[in-house]
Amino acid sequence: MKRKLWIVAALFLVVPGLLFTVSCAKKKVASEPGMMQEESEAAKSAAEKAREEELARQRALEEQRLKEAEEAKRKMIAEERARFENEDIYFEFDSATLLPMAQEILKRKAEYLKANPNLTVVIEGHCDERGTHEYNLALGDRRAKSAMQFLKDLGIPASRMVAISYGEERPVDPGHNEEAWAKNRRAHFVIQ
User: Fold this and answer.
1) Taking a C-beta distance cutoff of 8 angstroms, is the pair 173, 184 a contact?
2) Phi/psi-derived region of residue 67, left when phi > 0, alpha when psi is between -120 and 50, beta in every other case
3) In sequence order, what DSSP letters do the residues of 56-85 get, joined into one string?
4) Is 45 a member of any domain?
5) Does residue 165 belong to any structural domain of this protein?
6) Does the predicted TM-score (pTM) go above 0.70?
7) Judging by beta carbons within 10 Å of its beta carbon (0-12, 13-18, 19+), is residue 161 exposed, middle or buried?
8) 159: which DSSP letter?
9) pLDDT at res. 95
10) Which of 61, 40, 42 is CA-nearest to residue 50?
11) HSE of 143, CA atoms in CB hemisphere, 13 A
């Protein structure tokens, strides 16, 4: 029993002692006013530096975004230009009459030219190898002028277009069959 009494007595002395030491933690003593001001200025300086670094990072991100947008715009313009130049119109044998499919292509080309009023275009008339050199030059000229007139009727000023004939001089397909000749009876468009 004495043992239990000693344990209870020890608990009554130890527990309040522990509570007293834990509850009375040391408070930080304010240092001199000059040191507090230096610490405050250092904190402000660090915060300002962090803010400047964040602003610089945001500017760099914005510049990168603008470069990417400009590059995407340049790429889109180049693709539109290539599409304009690479889409030829085709003609029947010994004809300068525009086919319905050619008219649809010319309508798209007119829209592109209206959207880009600073561009001029060379319309090249081409023929297959059949016929004399002089005849094919004249036929190529009629084909180029037929396309040019259609574009004029759609509102493109003649001053922005030049018609030229190459006759059979520049075949896209050098073959000597109907398939090759059909590819060579065309009007080609080149942006200047």
Assistant:
1) yes
2) alpha
3) HHHHHHHHHHHHHHHHHHHHHHHHHHHHHH
4) no
5) yes
6) no
7) buried
8) G
9) 94
10) 42
11) 32
Cα distance between residue 130 and residue 171, in whole Å: 12
Q: pLDDT in tens for each of the 192 residues of the chain?
A: 777 776 776 767 776 766 666 665 566 655 556 666 777 888 888 889 999 999 999 999 999 999 999 999 999 988 989 899 999 999 999 999 999 999 999 999 999 999 999 999 999 999 999 999 999 999 999 999 999 999 999 999 999 999 999 999 999 999 999 999 999 999 999 998
At 67 the pLDDT is 92
Q: Are strands 89-90 and 161-167 parallel, antiparallel or unpaired?
A: unpaired
Q: Say what angle helices 100-115 and 33-86 make with each other, to 10 degrees.
A: 150
Number of domains present in the structure of the chain = 1
Q: What is the CATH number of the domain that holds 117?
A: 3.30.1330.60
Helix (H, G, I), strand (E, B) or coil at 6: helix
User: What is the C-alpha to C-alpha distance for residues 143 and 130, in angstroms, rounded to an integer?
Assistant: 16
Measured in whole angstroms, how far is the alpha carbon of residue 2 from the centre of its chain? 92
Write out the residue range of the structural domain in which residue 132 sits.
87-191
Q: What residues are paired with 188 via a beta bridge?
A: 124
